[in-house]
Amino acid sequence: MAYGIGCALLLFKHTLRPDQETQIKVMALLVALLQKVGGRERADMFEYLWKKNMRQFIHKNIIHNWPQLGDEMRHYLYVLQCLSLGLLEGRMRMAMDPNDAEQRQHLQNLRLSAFPIEVEDGGHMTAERRRSLCAKEFRKLGFTNNGSPWQDLCLTPPGLLALDNMMYFSTRWPNAYSRFVLENSSREDKHVCPFARSSIHLTLILCEILRVGETASETGQDFLTMFYAQDHFLHELFCVCIQVLNKTWKEMRATHEDFDKVMHVVKEQISRTLGQVPTSLEFFRTKISSLNYSEILRRRQEERLIQDEALSPPVMELRKQLEPELLTLIRQHRLNYLCEGTKFRKISSRRRQDKLWFCRLSPNHKVLHYGDLEDNIDKPPIEMLAQKISVSDIKYVLTGKDCPHMKEKNSGKQNKDHMDQAFSICYDVDSCLNFIAPSPMDFCMWIDGMNALLDKEMPSERTRSDLDLLLNTELKLRLLDLENIPVPDQPPPVPPRPKNYDYCYQFTSTEA
Length: 512
Description:
There is one protein chain. The chain is of the alpha+beta class. It folds into three domains: 2-68, no CATH class; 107-303, no CATH class; 331-463, Roll (PH-domain like), CATH 2.30.29.30. Helices cover 55% and strands 8% of the residues. The protein has helices at residues 2-15, 20-36, 39-51, 54-63, 71-86, 89-92, 101-114, 116-121, 127-140, 160-172, 174-185, 195-210, 225-228, 233-252, 259-274, 281-290, 293-310, 313-340, 412-418, 440-453, 461-478, and strands spanning 342-346, 355-361, 367-372, 387-390, 394-399, 422-427, 431-436. The strands form two sheets. It has a four-stranded antiparallel β-sheet. A three-stranded antiparallel β-sheet has the order 5-6-7, covered by helices on one side. A hairpin with a 3-residue loop joins strand 6 (422-427) and strand 7. The longest helix has 28 residues, at 313-340. The protein starts with a helix and ends in a 34-residue tail after the last helix.
């Protein structure tokens, strides 16, 4: 443990240097060290680094100070976030033990924080009366098994992590906690928002959205800026969301039968707000507060109307007419992307990822150029890429488990991590150029681009989403003149034939 913390201290000191290249290399070493050590030592290292204000340093001096975060740094910040949130997995998968005195005390503290007066008044009651009063108070707290509330926390996930969140809320925001419980205690029984049950399900929702416990992808880059802006990130996020849940419950005038519906709306509120990429918890709080139940209904209605309009027969016919032209546009975009080129990592059987190589398509779309990438060059010109493949020699493209480098022995777990972003360009007889895309977006671009080169259909999800976006935008532009004018499902009837076709009129010289 001392060795790990010592290494972390040394690396942290180097991270403080202003040189960006040094910071990238130090972050790479730090992430590799955290991935290597065991769970207990990893927790100690994170505790030490956070005490040294590394989170604040990353947020201020890297995320907000760099002109642009490169792919490498974004990946390391993503992995660091995954590893930190992964420390919660143990609590998430641990059911409550009724024989554990500390866990029982946490439950009692929840009750005491919400109902201190009742406890004092009941101090001279009999044991039976006291048990009855406790059960009543646990029911007011929203526990389903109010006689044995620990049973509610046996569901894993979220397990004891839900109890941790409830305890954090009750101690960090005691007034908000008391207001939540007492406000619901005064409501009619069927309209009560159960705090404990809601907290357990909300914790599960947050774990799903934040992917707590999932292994970090070796090519992922989607980190939350908000994570580095806030200590105790998940607990603080829970405190905001549980109050939003209570507000949404009131707006929906929900009853116990509506519990699942409310949780679905809250999950949508959280997901939509995170989709706006909030940079701080306050920004998240502001945005999710404005995204109330009425706004959710309005957006759903808009999406439903757009969908209904898009499925009408005249619009479907117009879509068919527009689709070939837009597919040609997407095809050209993919080929331009290949001409720009992409950095790829060389990942060996020892899982080293420090070597990079570059591949790009020639401007005339006839040759693929590739070669090793030097440290000081981001996008090398074609002249610096020593190797090449003629497009006319390419036979087909393989993806996923069909790729040769995904079938290699002694790297089963590694292959699973890369499977979704692996592809191979096969040329000549038994020759293949193997790739692992740095991101799902790059994977889609290259698969589409290679299929476009081979005059095949572009199969990726990205193509479908881009085509839908372009079609919907073009349709909206073309239908602007018909706004508020109902478009019939059937075309107007063809008028009857004229009595004669003598449309010719002879002009006289005077008329002319």
